[in-house]
Description:
heterodimer, A: 113 residues, mainly beta, 4-stranded antiparallel β-sheet, 12 strands, globular, B: 115 residues, 7-stranded mixed β-sheet
Amino acid sequence: AQSVAQPEDQVNVAEGNPLTVKCTYSVSGNPYLFWYVQYPNRGLQFLLKYITGDNLVKGSYGFEAEFNKSQTSFHLKKPSALVSDSALYFCAVDQTGANNLFFGTGTRLTVIP
Amino acid sequence: NAGVMQNPRHLVRRRGQEARLRCSPMKGHSHVYWYRQLPEEGLKFMVYLQKENIIDESGMPKERFSAEFPKEGPSILRIQQVVRGDSAAYFCASSPPARVTGELFFGEGSRLTVL
């Protein structure tokens, strides 16, 4: 069985500071890992993915994520937060590679001006 | 290049009525996924379809819910005899053939309110 945990419901960070949104996963075998962002009343937008290769993955809007196999984590990071980054962020795992994503419960990021 | 189109965006039904939600995938995409998002919760997978085939319906409630993706036309998620607990946002996503990109493209959702 696969699962994803986002331990923080809410993350607050000051504008210009680095941000981290945490995600841990549990799958059998090699995971496909994703981050999506949801703005109010909108659908989810793809940010980045890890399939294989370099553990540091760069994505849209300056976001990046680091795959850590030993800690089974895939934390989302950005060096300098913008107010416009405020949104709901979802981590997801795909165990089979068939695009059948299993989502975490989401973390609401608020960037304070 | 239009994205994933869902309609209606908002739907209000009384208990016992039927709700039909439609999803047109992105051009060139042959795979459709339906997810449900309850208030303050994450997305829960419901069903994965290809044209004329249900591939995985492990997330679908056993009763009242059905989905189809006909050869022509949009995918339809149908909820019969709705109850208040069906109130949620229903998101459709599409993708090219599996194992190509690993990315899903989501529509803006259909928000169902059951009175």
